[in-house]
Amino acid sequence: MAALLIVLGIVVIVVVACIVIYNSLITLRNRYKNAYSQIDVQLKRRYDLIPNLVETAKGYLKHERETLEAVIKARNQASAANQKAAASPGEPSAMQGVIGAEAALTGALGRFFALAEQYPDLKANQTMSQLMEELSSTENKVSFARQAYNDAVMAYNISREKFPNLLIAGPFGFQEAVLFEISAPEEREAVKVSF
Amino acid sequence: MDFFERQEAAKRKTTVLTLYFLLALFFIICGVYLAIVVAWSLSVEKMANPWNPTFFLYVAAGVLTVILIGSLYKVIVLSKGGEKVAEMLGATPVDPNTKDPDERKLLNVVEEMGIASGIPVPRVYALQNEKGINALAAGLTPDSAVVAVTRGCMERLTRDELQGVVAHEFSHILNGDMRLNIRLMGIINGILVIAMIGRAILRGMSSKKSRSSGKKGGGGLPVLLLGLILVVVGYIGVFFGKLIKSGVSRQREFLADAAAVQFTRNPSGLTGALKKIAERKEGSRILDREAEEASHLFFANGLSKAFFRWLSTHPPIEERIRRIDPLFKVPFFREPTLEPGGEDLPTFMAPRQLTPDQIVSHVGNPQAEDLAFARKIMTDLHPLLSEAAHEPFGARALLYALLLDHDQEVRKKQIKTLESHADPAVMRHTLMLLPVVDVLGQGYRLPLVDLAIPALKSLSPNQYEVFRENVRHLVEADKGISLFEYVIQRILVHHLDPFFGERRPSRVKYHLFDQVQIECRELLSILAWHGNRDASAAHGAFLKGMNELAADKTFSILPQEECHLRLLDSALERLSEASPLLKKNILKSSVQCISADRMIRVQEVELIRAVADSLDCPIPPLSPGGAITP
């Protein structure tokens, strides 16, 4: 009889432990998903600023249509990719999508600013400098939010791979989450917004 | 009953509940035993003597283990904070920067109320998939509280009605109802576990049955019986659980309604919301599976109508509406305006003289004028500051700016220290906000901190570490930091550290003055030296404060050299673990000490508010605090 009770006791402890581990994985997963929404907010701001930027610059850069269109195109693609990622944060294909699209956007913006350097009238325009200021501040916020998201993803991934958590993670479908990393080294420098 | 007495009363209620719980346990054990005996007699053999004490004990042990584990587990999980409860019900955090107009409306309402009550703005969650009109507040303490609102609420209620609902929830927060409710949830979960296990077995059985139809009918019988037994017994448990919950919550719902009306001075807001719930059959229904467990936390009945009236966790809606409408007799009632800020500022806003009693009675007791003042703060606030407060990057810079001392020498040192430790982008942001922060009226600084706290809670743990370090550097940059800046830092740490797991929330340890007399002496000494230049005045102030606490004993003020800010830290730490009634006296004595020079100025009120905040006593902002130049 005593042996039966001991076995029962062990079973109970194991079950409770499983529940605790499962719930902690759920909590960590929710945390990184919520952290992505911070990134989402700042990226959306960025996407909202860019069309204004292009509009302001249009008057001055009359013959540089290609560059301007490239920026708008890259912006639209990034916006779409971000929406996908916001719907399923951390999921590999969605994250790769948004990382790639953001890199492309950064590249297009870089070319735009390089071009704008050559037009002193544009530089002097007040709306332009205001927008640049806001863009720069948004860049900072994006990178800060990205840092928080990456921290949360790391915590989740580590928890997921630890023993004994990995025994629960597998059967219950806890996938590995993907970090929001900048893809190419040259893009690691924040877009230089200096006039 | 004031705030402190309500807190004590809430604690006492828990003892009564434990008794009910034990009764329920007893009945459940008997039920299980009976059921097993019957099942045994029917299926295996007729028992010669149904009463078997040893077997009864085994059954008792088994049932107790299951229930206790279920309860303990839930209590531990829920004590981690209000967020857990909200997430359990499927709620998601509302982004402080949201563009959705319904969510924005909700956030504004909650922010106004947070500032008006003197607590850090609670994080707001949304039950996006629920179309019914309902809301809940959860969390063990006012400053770890969370407010969750259904999508139905946001879409179908006007701003006034939403305000009524949120005010109702806030009164739960300030009355200490939440702590009680969460304990309840934990305890009852244990009882429900049995029913859940039974249901699971039956579900498993029914799916097996459909596959092997009639082939092995005999073999499955004992398991089926077991499942049946457990379900029946479980429902006994649910019955008792509902009884316990409803006994507690119905009365509190009326109280919360009354407090909400007092707070907003707009009964049609709350009745409007209640009427909207009443007019649709599924008015406040919550569809989530977990709703049963948390049913007593909600604003209105989240489940289908209970079979017996007295099993319902909420009083009937018609009754609630009737209690508000005829009850309301305030003579100066004005027609509520639809747009906030459209009303003229009430005349009370002329600076008034406050007595210590008035200040202490305001704790946990926000009034309509506090709400009006909170609205003024929100509309007056420079957009740069409000924007910064709402997202984590800017909130850090905002706090750094608030911690920079007004004294130029100290400030220079602080900026230097910050530059060597903080990210350059944040430094720039801080310096940009500094001119605006500098002209901020004294009475606006603490509300700004309250506003920024939810955004700071979305920092990752690593980011919080860094932030915390920088805050520490700012405070230690020079010993000459002013008391007010120092206390801002304390408030920050007090509210955020437990959230990030760096500190356990305080429990009540001390009930007698003697246990905390050293710390009281330290606190009053520091306050006395702060407000008075010369020794005799400081002595006088100290004695005045001490008199309030222990008129019979004599204490002497600590020498000025010993009164450094570290001492205040340790004193407040310990004092925050005092019982509510003791805290009331400590607060009163602090007010007496500070008001020794007869009139209480704005700066002094803010200092009191800051000290009270460290003691978990929310005081609404009490003064208009001077104009801001935008």
Overview of the structural elements:
The complex is a heterodimer of chains A (195) and B (630). With 195 residues, chain A is an all-alpha fold. Chain A has a single domain (21-188), classed as Up-down Bundle (de novo design (two linked rop proteins)), CATH 1.20.1440.20. Chain A has 6 helices and no strands. Chain A has helices spanning 2-58, 65-87, 92-116, 120-124, 126-161, 165-169. The longest helix of chain A has 57 residues, at 2-58. In chain B, α2 packs across α7 (177-211) and α4 packs across α6. With 630 residues, chain B is mostly helical. Chain B has helices spanning 3-43, 53-78, 82-88, 101-117, 151-156, 159-175, 177-211, 221-264, 267-279, 317-324, 356-361, 368-380, 383-389, 392-403, 408-421, 424-438, 442-457, 461-476, 483-496, 517-531, 535-549, 565-575, 580-594, 602-614, and strands at 92-93, 123-127, 135-138, 146-150. Chain B is 63% helix and 3% strand. Chain B is globular. Among the domains of chain B are: 360-483, no CATH class; 513-598, no CATH class. The chains are: A mainly alpha (195), B mainly alpha (630).
- Which architecture name of chain A does CATH use? Up-down Bundle
Helix content of chain A: over 70%
C-alpha Rg of chain B, in Å?
28 Å
User: What proportion strand of chain A?
Assistant: under 5%
Relevant terms:
heterodimer, A: 195 residues, mainly alpha, 0% strand, B: 630 residues, globular
